Amino acid sequence: MDINNSTFDLKFLGTGAADFSPLLKTEYKEKFGLDARRSSSILLNGHILIDAGVHTYESLNITGTDISKITDIFISHLHIDHYNAEVIEKIASHREKPVKLWLPEGSLESKHFTKSANTEVKLMKNFETYETACKIKVSAMPANHSTEYLSRHFVFEKENKKFFYGLDGAWFLFDSYYFMQNMKLDLMILDATCGDYEGDYRMAEHNSIPMIKLMLPSLKTMNIIDENSKIILSHIAPTLNKPHTETEKIVSEFGALLAFDGMEFSL
Fold it and tell me: Structure pTM?
């Protein structure tokens, strides 16, 4: 692992929403499956976790990750499928030095927060940019999701590469939208909890595929993305989406990729 790597190497440890398949306890207990998605989490450059939910420790073991190399964990919000104190403590136990745990400001006062041993908490304010020891810059912004769970989106930046991580959250809040204006992101990882249909009551907190198709032209108008930007859809609810292979074909029609557990992507 080279923490000074100028690229972003992403490994999708989980790509699901909270409607977990019962197959995760049987057939896919120790391996990945396209339609048995684990809690959404990404391993970045081998040592940074973005979200650490109920399945993240299992996923790290499935991928053969050296967990002792994990230095930082960024938590988007305090829902259990993105933040699990017991899982974080297991991960941190592999290291001698504390793991830096980056949380939304206000987390320590939340009833949903539990202290994990061997972690150093770093609180992130909205619209401020922070830097990790390996010179990755991270900005947080509010997400259109549960305020009780302190929901946030992130932009990660290193040298001339930038990507957006926004799982759980629909559309964009006004201030967050304008914060990203002219960023020309290389990659957006977007929530796609709901499937290829209209009329779902969750439209105020989760995207559907038709919603994403509407958003992309406006994101280009605002120079948030351009024609070279990659779009990856994740946080897929199996009960609301067609099987992976069918959904993959649907989103490919407008140039997007559909994430799956174990997927790797370099930027």
Answer: 0.96
